[in-house]
Amino acid sequence: MQHSADGQPDGTATVQFPRPGFLASVFRELNTDQGQGQGLDPDAAGPGPAAPGTPGGVMPDDGASGGGVSDDGASGGAASGDGPVEPEESIAAHGRAAALTHHRTLTVQAEHDRLADLLRRAALPVSAMDFESQLRHYEPRPYPADGPETGSEAEPRWADFAPAGPATADPDGAPARRLLDSGYQRELAQARLAHQRSLREWRTRRSEADNPAADESRRVHEAAEEARARAVREYNESLEECRRAYRLSEPAAVESLLERALAAAETATQDLPAPCRAVFRPLTRTAVLDLDLPPLDLVPSLTGYRLAPDGDIVPVPRPPADRATDYLRLVARLALRALQAADAVDTDEILAGVVLNGWLREPGTAEPLCLVSVDADRDALARTRLLPPATPYEERDDEGVYADAEQDEALVRLRQLGAAVTPDPYGRVGVQPAAQAGAAVPAAPDLSANEFAQLVRDLLTRGGLAEWSVRLRGPAGLVATGEGAPGSALPGRWVVWASRGAEPVSAEEIATLAEAVQEESAERGLRLTTGRFADEALDLTGEESHRHIHLVDGDGVSELARTHLGLPLAAGR
């Protein structure tokens, strides 16, 4: 109902959208302002006694208006302000909850996208940081005011700038007709400008030749260029000195080169700090790398959010196995990248192998937890490569960018290296490190399996045993065969059984080695241990049937290392 300017109804009606409590307000208005209703019968609308069963004198509804009293006495209009929630308010609240659910889900999806991007960038190839790539080159910069030597420079002549005369169809024509050619006149004007410019520059150079300020500027420039050349020369000389130290297997030089290469490998994932430290052990020519792994909460723990029927926003967690797999996929790429950096920089083949330990360092914990450990020799590293950057991830409807751990190429290649990988990083299940990055000259129990095998091979091959062939190898030792040249310290064919451990070697092991010598058609057997031999084993080798079995205990191993390698070895603790 519209009203005039004086507040009275003007008899025209307007259409309005329903709002909460609209019908209730209409009935309240009719009840209190019933005498002002336009178009009502005065006798019916005037004050008087209310009809039975009707409030405030309002007549019972005949069913046409739909706003009367129902059979149970309740009002047919909307509830008052302290009644039930209106449907419009409920719909609005549901819409706000749905929008918030969508926003939180998008945030979780952004975390998944960031992880996928990290996986891609962590698999990029590593640029080699060898000595050749670090050399600097000096290129002299000319002095800005430099020109030809003014002492030997002649004054520019007009004859050198004058254009050739215009060609004419009539060779016998008058020269004045050629001068009237417009093209020739333009060339002549440009030549005069060029001659005047050259003449002005020549005069300027002659005047500056005797200028003390110009001489001082030139001296400053030449001194700066000389300093640049000297800095490049000194840097290359120091780099060459480091290269000589590196070729001599000096630990400081090897570790410096390795750590520069490892730092350069992190440039693709600068937003994911994963520092790696290197320790070089010249005794076994092995680098031990300690890689700090990213925190566990880097991998999203949710797939998103959903809206419950009661309106609550409920997080949807990921399966623990999927989250652990994604973390291990990232760890595998970081480990392979560090191994590749160490292998690519070792162009002179100083390293015989690399041991890498991945450590999880959490705040509040006293000791770090080793989640991955790799013990790889040079041959294995040469066969190992990172994922090509152009290889797409396997996409499935139920996995997206995440593939099964058994099908992930980085994890497969890491396990092909014999790596020990934790089955459950979120359960804090650690693995035994292959070797600890300790002293440059470690004790025998601190060596990795590859280090111990390399040490035994170096000791015996330098003693004269060639054609080395490993038959069995494990964490505790190895069994190999070799053949020495006649006249060497170890002539003939040998079967070598080397082990390390605190337990003394028994007589049964000596008898087993004698049987292996017979099966291999060898002439002698060598039992080497970093510990000691039992008395029964010593007595057995004293018998005639076992005199072809030779024994080397821990003291003998240390002496061989000092004699053939020039380095000490602590045989045990």
Strand-helix topology:
Layout: H1 22-32, H2 42-45, H3 87-122, H4 131-134, H5 175-179, H6 182-209, H7 212-247, H8 251-265, E1 276-281, E2 286-292, E3 302-307, E4 313-317, H9 320-345, E5 353-360, E6 369-377, H10 378-382, H11 409-416, E7 420-421, H12 449-462, E8 465-474, E9 477-484, E10 492-499, H13 507-519, E11 524-529, H14 535-541, E12 549-552, H15 554-565
Parallel strand pairs: 2-5, 10-11, 11-12
Antiparallel strand pairs: 1-2, 3-4, 5-6, 6-7, 8-9, 9-10
Structure commentary:
This protein has 573 residues and is of the alpha/beta class. Helix content is 39%, strand content 14%. It has 15 helices and 12 strands. A 5-stranded mixed beta sheet has the order 1-2-5-6-7, with helices on both faces. A 5-stranded mixed beta sheet has the order 8-9-10-11-12, with helices on both faces. A two-stranded antiparallel ribbon has the order 3-4. Helix 13 (507-519) packs parallel to helix 14. It is flat.
Uncertain residue segments: 1-18, 32-81, 389-403
- End-to-end Cα distance, whole Å, is 103 Å
General form = flat
DSSP helix fraction: 25-40%
> In which order are the strands of the major sheet placed?
1-2-5-6-7
The total of helices stands at: 15
Q: How do the SSEs run, as a string of H and E?
A: HHHHHHHHEEEEHEEHHEHEEEHEHEH
Largest sheet: 5 strands, mixed
Structural class: alpha/beta
Mean pLDDT: 78
Gyration radius (Cα, Å) is: 46 Å
DSSP strand content: 5-15%
